[in-house]
Amino acid sequence: MNRVHGFFIAGTDTHVGKTLVAAALLHAYADLGYRVLGMKPVAAGAELIDGVWVNEDAAMLRAAGNVQAAPELLNPYLLREAIAPHIAAEHKGVRIEIPRIRAAYDELAAQADVVLVEGVGGLLVPLSEHKDAADLAVALDLPLILVVGMRLGCINHALLTVAAIAARGLKLAGWVANRVDPAMAAYDENLAALRKRLPAPLLAELPHMASADPQRAARFLSQQKLTALLSNISKSE
Length: 237
Known about the structure:
- By secondary structure, the chain is α/β, with parallel strands linked by helices.
- The protein has a single domain, classed as Rossmann fold (3-Layer(aba) Sandwich).
- The chain has 10 helices and 10 strands.
- β8, α7 (154-167) and β9 (172-178) form a beta-alpha-beta unit.
- The protein is globular.
- The mean pLDDT is 95.
């Protein structure tokens, strides 16, 4: 298991469960015997805990991994304001540099079998004046796992995101349906429409969770599908 594999976890929007899915995938791959790490290159929103600024998403990913790594590698950019990252960076007087993130990813990849990189917001969220999250996925040269927040409008959001993935020359490896709205009307019909239109396998359906529980979510992930996911990426390299 010394071959490194990475995936970029993208979402159809913000608050669709990217962190929950990434952490669940980390738990699932760890259960399969892999050394795993979760990376949150850019985190917007932090609170002061015991004198240390902490981002909840980055902390969840760190807890789900089974390899120790330096915090500055797992989360190179920690921005205190929970707003668009390029704006939060401007307010802090820093510039988000993709080469710095790539260098951190390379160090993490030397320590693990599977590295999951969670994006920020939707795929086209700006990181700087000229770069966005899709540019980061391109620079990392990673296949994408798309988290679709199952709620009204999800079909349009998912198809627009898939079009953006294709336009950047990225590969969609699979997708996860996360029921963020427990009262979503015509859920089954929406899921069927997505399965028919998205050009990648559905990896899991996650039920609505009042609070994020990645270990519970991991139970909805098929070990067979996860193994096949790594195998398919190996064949395409």
